[in-house]
Amino acid sequence: MRPFFANQKGNFAITLGVMALPLLLCVGLGVDYTMMRNIRGTLQESVDAAALVGAKELAVAGTTKLTARGVAETYARGLLSQELVSESGGETFEVDTDAARDKREITVSASLYWEPMLLHLFHPDAMPLKASATATLTGEESICVIALDSSADNALALTGTSNMSANGCSIYSNSNSSKSISLAKGATLNSLTSYTSGGYFGSLEGYSPRPVTDSPRIADPLKSRSQPAAGPCREKNFWIDTGSITLHPGTYCGGIHIEGSAKVSLEAGIYVVKDGPLWIGGNATLSGEYVGFSFTGEAAVFDFGVSTQVDLLAPRNGPMAGILFFEDRSSSLNRLFSIRSKDAERFEGTIYIPRARLFIDKESRLGQMSNWTAIIANQIEVGKGPNVQINSDYAKSKIPVPDGVGPSAHAHLMK
User: Fold this and answer.
1) What's the CA gap between 295 and 277, in Å, rounded?
2) The predicted structure's pLDDT at residue 386
3) Cystine design at 154: which of 182, 269, 335, 406 (Cβ 3.0–4.6 Å)?
4) What is the pLDDT of residues 311-356, one digit of tens each?
5) What is the SS3 assignment for 349?
6) Which DSSP letter does residue 121 get?
7) Omega cis (within 30) before 315
């Protein structure tokens, strides 16, 4: 027996065998802990984002707390299904929401049962993983783009490599279609929040942030505003293609046609365009401060050509205060209003064409120099190349913002 006990061969194997179990336990616990931190972080980010969305929804006129809770829960489930379930291996999760009765705040909670290798044996309370977030709202929601159509595919659509950026304000599509908002490959939509009563189409990479789906429809915020009535014809079939001229407020029967190299300045006031278009073509220029256009009759639309320059500020007071364009509400549905101008950088005011289809095309740089712009149309399509910038710097503007468009709301996570 002495030689057996004196033999030192195999000491490493014996030592490794003795250490194997503690080593495996340490490795297993380390892997569990790392995965737990990653999953818990994703879970927290998801409820944070959902709480903010729910709080913003509370600011939309007519939204109940029950509706806001539903929107927040749907948003959280969408994020968790996309991000967290795949990461954790497909386990189930639960989401709950609550809205304070006397405050504009909403809480989103989520839990996920994940089966670790070893952690639950040493720390039973670690499962399920839980996260909660509460967001509160100050101010009122600023919605600067609204597509009013309640059922159409592509009610708000961006094609080609076009871009729409709503700086500090939100975008809304009332359509319950699964393609209520649609982005072609290469197009981008940026906003404070984008809401849709239905769904959205296109790569998530094009949306910033991800749209909030199944939102309640928003009513036309300018429905109570009365359209200025047409008066006696100041001009009939007005047309100019050269030189410079100043136009005066009044009713222009048969429309206004400006083309060639003409430069037209507008005196402050209201211009009623009756039974004809506001048509700008060639290299013509149209400019005016504190002006509004009221369109009356089926043929009354606007069309701004590719090489034109358009610089307009809405009225500061009167029946069209804050409104640049006002469409006849008795007109046929989805008449075409077009902006293709490369130089339409100052459209300060509201484009209000609630029954029309607004088409922004070519390389239009709509709104980039405006302090604020708002668009309310039945449908909105942005063509292959435009860069549409919807600013919301209301404090810098002399133009009043119509009720229902501003000011902005702020949702904050409560620490």
Assistant:
1) 8
2) 86
3) 182
4) 999 999 999 999 999 999 999 999 999 999 988 889 999 999 999 9
5) strand
6) H
7) no
How does DSSP classify residue 28? H
Give the model confidence (pLDDT) of 204-216 as tens digits: 999 999 999 988 8
Render 57-100 in DSSP notation, one character per residue: HHHSTT--HHHHHHHHHHHHHHHIIIIIHHHHTS--EEEEEEE-
Query: CB–CB of 226/248 below 8 Å?
Result: no
β partners of residue 73 = none
In angstroms, the CA 78 to CA 80 distance is: 6
Domain boundaries, the chain: 13-139, 143-407
pLDDT at 76: 85
> Residue 78: its pLDDT value, please?
83
Q: Is the distance from CB of 135 to CB of 411 less than 8 angstroms?
A: yes
Q: For residues 396 and 356, what is the distance between their CA atoms, to the nearest angstrom?
A: 30
Please report which helix (H) or strand (E) contains residue 350, including its range.
Answer: strand 343-360
* Residue the block writes with tokens 């006129």: 61
Residue 409's nearest CA partner among 51, 52, 48, 72 is 52
Give yes or no for a contact between 353 and 380, defined as CB atoms under 8 angstroms apart.
Answer: no
CB 373 within 8 A of CB 379: no
Cβ 378 vs Cβ 337: under 8 Å: no
Among positive and negative, which fits the CA dihedral 309, 313, 318, 320?
Answer: positive
CA angle 141, 146, 150 (to 5 degrees): 120
pLDDT in tens, 225-257: 999 999 999 999 999 999 999 999 999 999 999
Amino acid at 140: E
Tokens 């929107």 found at: 71
Looking at the chain, the whole-number percentage of residues with pLDDT higher than 70 is 80
Which class for 47: exposed (0-12), middle (13-18), buried (19 or more C-beta within 10 A)?
A: buried
Q: Is the pLDDT of residue 47 over 90?
A: no
Compute the mean pLDDT over every residue in the chain, rounded to the nearest whole number. 84
Nearest to 142 by CA among 56, 53, 50, 49: 56
